[in-house]
Amino acid sequence: MTKKFHLGWFTSFALDQWNHPFSSGGGKPWDGKFYIEMAKTLERACFDYLMLEDTLMVSDSYGHSTEIYLKNGIMAPKHDPAPLAALIGAATTNIGIVSTLSTLAYPPFLLARLAATLDHIAGGRYGWNIVTSGEDLAAQNFGMDKLPPRELRYEMADEYMQVVNQLFTSWDADAVVMDRATDTYADFTKVRPIHFEGKFFKCRGPLNTAPSPQGRPTYVQAGGSPRGRAFAGKHADSIIAIMHGVTAMKEYRDDVRAKADAAGRNPDDVKVLFLAAPVLGETEEEAREKYQRGVSSKSFIEQTLALFGSFTDIDFSQYELDQPLPGKLTTNGEQGSLDAFQQFGSGKTLRQLTVENGPQSSIELIGTPDQVAEKMGAAMEAVGGDGFLLKEPFHLINRRYIHEITEGLVPALQRRGLTRTVYTKDTLRETLREF
Fold first, then answer.
1. 3-class SS at 271?
2. What's the CA gap between 70 and 196, in Å, rounded?
3. Which of 79, 135, 229, 280 has the fewest Cβ atoms within 10 Å of its own Cβ atom?
4. Residues 2, 415: contact at Cβ < 8 Å?
5. For residue 171, what is the DSSP state?
6. DSSP state string for 416-431
């Protein structure tokens, strides 16, 4: 029997292709209506979740200027995903909605309270994408000169998770009794302070929200570095990953499953979704022409380098496009993302790396819907699971691409028995654990 895999979609509360013939919001998507429509479209295609990525600064990494970011709408403007998650959660019935909330920006109590509230609004379908933020410019928006060292950030994040997990259990699941006979809404004996006092955080508790419908929101996390993988294996219900090729995908999934097992978890409860950016056409030739047009343009090269520079804190404008990078680059930002990008030792030029990494796809998915569906199925069979997190290949989203995926690719997957045709579970965590 063919094993099903999961589908998610990766985007952010940012610009669409506002100057494209198939613009979604004409550069003004800020009322959220386009994203609500998008979520409903993905729900009809039975996606597990829509994930809203986020950052907390206007970057100037590329050329030490904000020009390329603001001119092209890359990384900015970007609006707060939490209110959008509430709108989407209230407007949908089955699809999960995941928003990024940074441990840099929220005290643990405030984040736990917000996440619990969003989980209620979404009826148990909310997920928190856990990030520590990897940019010094973001830190400077919160009263710091620069980020703590990466390893210290993970130590802080581990303690942060202890706090929020205790807050989510500060109300027993049956604390709300709504007993009319005694006029009692909640049993006070089932709600308690946590009195947490650690190295970095101190919190009395309890939460002042009703218990989250899922007990706690679904946890999503991207872990590329060894430390990040261990963190994801310990905490995440779904892991976002980008690897280059099936062999690397399998090695990654096996590794994080082993780390989940070492943390005392059931590895089957951890679903790894690999970033993928399909390019579709009515023929393979048409799809490949579309892909080449996209990745060979000067604007794509610049935007890709600016994008990777923004979350690695590296100015790629200083390097020659048609030469290999001068050595292995390191960062206090997202080292895992940087390592995946630079492919140290490959001998590839910066231009080659940019073309290869720009669409951010773990495997090449170019062709007709049926061809791409076959490739996805074969990859998942070789990797062992668990699914794909789809994204637009050329940085900014448009309505046409969404429908190419939901009306072209997904039916091809469903015909092969590879993805769900109906939702059967009530909560996001249950949906992810269904298979």
1. strand
2. 42
3. 79
4. no
5. B
6. TT-S-SS---SSHHHH
Quick one: DSSP state of residue 316? G
Six token digits for residue 425: 């579970």
Return the structure tokens found at 117. 């509230």
Residue at token pair 């909330």: 101
Burial of 91 (0-12, 13-18, 19+ CB in 10 A): middle
Between 226-235 and 246-262, two packed helices, what is the crossing angle to 10 degrees? 60
Neighbours of 173 (CB within 10 A): 11
Residue keyed to tokens 């390019």: 279
Beta-carbon contacts of residue 165 (< 8 Å; ≥ 6 apart):
216
Tokens of 251: 């090695």
In this predicted structure, the answer to whether residue 1 has a pLDDT above a threshold of 70 is: no
Q: Is 48 left (phi over 0), alpha (psi -120 to 50) or beta?
A: alpha
pTM given for the model: 0.94
Tokens 């990897």, located at residue: 134
pLDDT digits (tens, 9 = 90+) for 115-174: 999 999 999 999 999 999 989 999 999 999 999 998 899 999 999 999 999 999 999 999
- Choose among 6, 7, 81, 88: nearest CA to 406: 7
306: which residues sit within 8 A by CB, 6+ positions away?
A: 59, 61, 62, 68, 69, 72, 74, 75, 316
CA distances for 132 relative to 49, 101, 105, angstroms: 21, 9, 9
